[in-house]
Automatic annotation (TrEMBL):
Catalytic reaction(s) noted: a 2'-deoxyadenosine in DNA + S-adenosyl-L-methionine = an N(6)-methyl-2'-deoxyadenosine in DNA + S-adenosyl-L-homocysteine + H(+)
GO molecular function: site-specific DNA-methyltransferase (adenine-specific) activity
Record's keyword terms, sorted: Methyltransferase, S-adenosyl-L-methionine, Transferase
Chaperone among keywords: no
Identification of the protein by name: site-specific DNA-methyltransferase (adenine-specific)
Single GO biological process annotation from the record: methylation
The keyword Transferase belongs to this UniProt entry's keyword annotation: yes
Length: 346
């Protein structure tokens, strides 16, 4: 791989559609670009892809990227933007999605009656999915990604733990009909499609099931185990997860006000299990250069993580990065004032 043009990669990544996602790494992109370029290599795994921005950065830097997440909607986003090299949604495609329904489905209207969106917006989601179901492969991935981002932008704070408008600050995103959101979000995803010249992959898997070898770089951004509260991604983003598959094979907890999905266990989310989960993950990818981002307000602490890495790596660097998360706007969110660490194990 030739030496990548960092400036060009950062410029390309700067327009990647922004999903308000817990722990997203948009602000870390310049630091990560520098680290990835220092390491070099040709192949990279983004094992916890989340918003998809780091996978897209790696693609922009010329890597052959394998992108993975244990949720479905992040894997759809990376299929649309990292795996997809040339396909766009045409103007006719977009208008077809926003046009008359292709069937009589009404699951969203029935199941989420009175929740999250207006009746017109809920009807649009059913109608849009009836038309998206007619699309295939990369076009469908772009359309689902745009629909997910539209729903996230329309919901206050982008999370689905609340059903009222307590965080309605009057901004345009909360007023725009979902059909118009979809048109704008589809245009955003179309804008970032490009051909990197190498074949990339996207998975939806538990990290422990991934092949351990074949990557020059393995980037790890696991769910944080906070000392208080929780980081349950299903609780916060259950609607987006369900929407990405139109709730196929998803079990809704009918006794919950938010109609959330059943929680999926991950050992990274709990103080009692995360240390061993990290150790096993470092062991799994010991033959690759490991880059891990982790927060000072998470468990375990930086010293423990560095010690775990040294069990498998002879050269471990810890680089603190001043960073504030974009997630959360409430005045008492002091946890936003944290240090982000980049661990590099060679």
């Amino acid at each position: 791989m030739t030496t990548p043009d960092i400036s060009a990669a950062l410029e390309r990544t700067s327009v990647f559609p922004r999903l308000r996602y817990m722990g997203s790494k948009y602000k870390l992109v310049p630091h990560l670009a520098k680290v990835f370029t220092e390491i070099g290599g040709r192949t990279a795994l983004d094992a916890f892809s989340g918003s998809g921005v780091v996978s897209y950065l790696l693609k922009s830097l010329g890597y052959r990227v394998s992108s993975n997440d244990f949720l479905n909607f992040p894997s759809v986003i990376t299929r649309a933007t990292v795996v997809n090299q040339t396909v766009l949604l045409t103007k006719d495609d977009i208008e077809t999605v926003c046009g008359p329904a292709a069937d009589d489905r009404d699951f969203i209207r029935r199941t989420f009656d009175g929740l999250y969106f207006t009746a017109e917006d809920r009807e649009f989601l059913d109608t849009a999915w009836s038309n998206i179901a007619q699309l295939t492969d990369d076009k469908q991935a772009i359309a689902i990604s745009a629909l997910v981002l539209a729903a996230a932008r329309k919901q206050p704070r982008g999370v689905f733990t609340i059903t009222d408008l307590r965080y309605d600050d009057g901004r345009r995103d909360l007023r725009l009909p979902l059909s118009e959101h979809f048109r704008e979000r589809a245009a955003e995803y179309n804008k970032v499609v490009f051909n990197s010249g190498v074949q990339n992959r996207a998975f939806r898997s538990d990290v422990s099931t991934l092949e351990p070898g074949g990557y020059d770089i393995v980037y790890l951004d696991p769910p944080y185990a906070p000392p208080r509260d929780d980081n349950d991604y299903i609780k916060r983003y259950h609607f987006l997860e369900g929407l990405s598959v139109y709730w196929k094979d998803q079990k809704i907890m009918e006794n919950t006000k938010t109609k959330k999905l059943e929680k999926r266990f991950t050992p990274f989310a709990y103080k009692r299990t995360i240390t061993e989960a990290l150790r096993q993950t470092f062991k799994q990818f010991k033959d690759s250069t490991i880059v891990l981002s982790y927060s000072s307000n998470a468990v375990p602490d930086a010293g423990t993580i560095a010690g775990l890495l040294r069990e498998f790596k002879g050269d471990v660097q810890v680089r603190p990065v001043d960073h504030k998360y974009s997630f959360g706007t409430h005045a008492t969110a002091q946890r936003r004032d944290v240090s982000e660490y980049l661990f590099i194990g060679r």
